[in-house]
Automatic annotation (TrEMBL):
Tree of life domain: Eukaryota
Any Gene Ontology CC annotation: plasma membrane
Matches recorded under PANTHER family: DEP DOMAIN PROTEIN, DEP DOMAIN-CONTAINING MTOR-INTERACTING PROTEIN
InterPro entries cross-referenced by the UniProt entry: DEP_dom, DEPTOR_DEP_2, mTOR-Rac_regulators, WH-like_DNA-bd_sf, WH_DNA-bd_sf
Gene3D superfamilies per record: Winged helix-like DNA-binding domain superfamily/Winged helix DNA-binding domain
Organism annotation: Python bivittatus
Protein name from the UniProt record: DEP domain-containing mTOR-interacting protein isoform X1
GO biological process assignments: G protein-coupled receptor signaling pathway; intracellular signal transduction; negative regulation of TOR signaling
Any one GO MF annotation of this record: GTPase activator activity
One Pfam family per UniProt: DEP
Residue ranges of domain DEP in the record: 87-170, 196-270
Length: 337
């Protein structure tokens, strides 16, 4: 019996005596699992080096940073979509003015508000929007891929250099109005109302030592949205502001905060009125916009020694700030509305 008891003791697994993890440490482990790999390592390191309270604060900061990063990436993707929509709309209006878009007949049937593919390619080359026919086809294909145009009978999914009829979906009411497009259209309407009315909302202001053109304070925009009937309550207006930020319409001036009812400064992420060139559709997004996604109204940090050389982005090119102020808006932006 004694021999058997000895064998059982030898086979028994020894108990491990380890201290139970604190609540903050367990929370940190759970939070770290939900973060991107670089953030997980940072949270674990902070939990080992600091106490429970510091670990919890580090977790919150890391999760907020990770959330803002994902938000900015999504906003950049939606901004790219918005640029295509704006480019297509500007082209549509120009083609109407040039009578390229008109009612046409084929086999005794009339097709309203359409254009001939071959004629459009000729027009793009003549107006320096494309260097050759192959490039022109690629440009218009971008619009077709985004469901901005389509073949009048939906028989061709590719844009061809032939005598085929195509039409802008906005001209026949078939343009798909998903949530992203609705948010974009509402943001554009708010932008135009702000730009076309005399108000003190859009002003040059400073935040953390940097000066920005045409900024608005979140709390003032909320007041204006309620006044203009865009929202009924402050909570509804704040939710609208958050939606505009998430869809790449507006941004915090230094991309550090989501939209909230506060004195923080925000800007429109893009200049809706800037005239787009079709060739921009073929350019890589990283080349068109800086990695920091600066607003087109962003003045660089200034000091007294270099104030003369302050510049800010207007669309995709740099303009001297002092030169911009002396140039009428009509010469800088193209109002296609």
């Amino acid at each position: 019996m004694a021999k058997k008891r000895g064998q059982r003791r030898a086979l028994a697994r020894p108990r491990r005596c380890e201290p139970r993890a604190s609540g903050a440490a367990r929370l940190g482990a759970l939070g770290a699992a939900a973060l991107a790999p670089p953030c997980r390592a940072a949270v674990r390191a902070a939990g080992k080096a600091a106490g429970p309270r510091e670990a919890l604060l580090g977790l919150v900061a890391a999760m907020e940073e990770n959330s803002l990063g994902n938000l900015q990436q999504r906003a950049a993707e939606l901004e790219c979509m918005a640029e295509v929509l704006l480019t297509g709309e500007q082209l549509r209006l120009r083609l109407h003015e040039e009578k390229i878009i008109k009612d046409r007949r084929h086999h005794l049937k009339t097709y309203p508000n359409c254009f001939v593919a071959k004629e459009l390619i000729d027009w793009l080359i003549d107006h320096k929007e494309a260097s050759d026919r192959e490039t022109a086809i690629k440009l218009v294909q971008k619009l077709l891929d985004r469901s901005i145009i389509h073949h009048v009978c939906d028989e061709h999914k590719e844009f061809k250099d032939l005598k085929l009829f195509y039409r802008f979906r906005k001209d026949d009411g078939t343009f798909p109005l998903d949530n992203e497009v609705k948010a974009f259209m509402r943001g554009q309407r708010i932008y135009e109302k702000l730009m076309n009315t005399e108000n003190v909302i859009l002003q040059a202001r400073e935040e953390e030592g940097a000066k920005y053109e045409r900024t608005f304070m979140a709390s003032q925009l909320i007041d204006w949205l309620i006044q203009e009937g865009e929202a009924a309550t402050r909570a509804e207006a704040e939710q609208l502001g958050r939606r505009l930020l998430e869809h790449g319409i507006i941004q915090h001036v230094s991309n550090k905060h989501h939209f909230m009812d506060s004195n923080l400064l925000y800007q429109f992420r893009m200049n809706f009125r800037r005239r787009r060139r079709l060739m921009e559709l073929l350019a890589e997004k990283s080349r068109l916009m800086p990695e920091s996604h600066d607003s087109p109204f962003c003045l660089r940090k200034q000091n007294h020694d270099h104030k003369k050389h302050a510049t800010f982005l207007s669309g995709k090119r740099l303009i001297r700030a002092e030169d911009y102020r002396s140039v009428p808006d009509s010469q800088v932006i193209w109002n296609y509305a």
